[in-house]
Write a structure and sequence with these properties.
Layout (H helix, E strand, L loop, with lengths): L4 H6 L7 E4 L3 E5 L7 E7 L14 H17 L7 E4 L15 E5 L9
Antiparallel strand pairs: 1-2, 2-3, 3-5, 4-5
This protein binds guanosine-5'-monophosphate (5GP) and zinc ion.
């Protein structure tokens, strides 16, 4: 999608700190990290949010979680633990309408949010 921020990051049209890339997903540091490790894992295909997911996205969705496992290990939080969050729609505060999995880690999280 031409006017989508994360599509531009995926295509390297906007700089970001990319930590992982494969055929299905790209992952990069959040520009305003909320925790010592805060990485966004996104499908390379434009999907506006979790509410748009269908069974056809199963492989992509699995790839996002498999990538999260590898990224957690690479950033030293696999044992200490981490949180995976997807915001969907206005009440969640979703700000970017390209599906993304937040990986939060590196500190003890005291509440149930990121
Ligand atoms: P949401 O609230 O939609 O779940 O999260 C969007 C996330 O994208 C936020 O945590 C925000 O800091 C991050 N973000 C917004 N703009 C940029 C950007 O240009 N580059 C990067 N790397 N992250 C961004
Ligand atoms: Zn997009």
């Amino acid at each position: 999608m031409s006017d989508c921020l994360f599509c531009k990051i995926i295509k390297n049209e906007i700089p970001s700190k990319i930590v992982y890339r494969d055929d299905l997903v790209t992952a990069f540091w959040d520009i305003h990290p909320q925790t010592p490790v805060h990485i966004l894992i996104v499908p390379n295909q434009h999907i506006a949010g979790a509410a748009e997911l269908t069974p056809a996205h199963a492989e992509t969705l699995a790839a996002m979680f498999v990538a999260a496992n590898a990224i957690a290990a690479e950033h030293g939080v696999a044992q200490s633990g981490y949180r995976l969050t997807i915001n969907q729609g206005p009440d969640s505060g979703q700000a970017v309408f390209h599906l993304h999995l937040h990986l939060f880690g590196g500190k003890r999280m005291s509440d149930r949010r990121g």
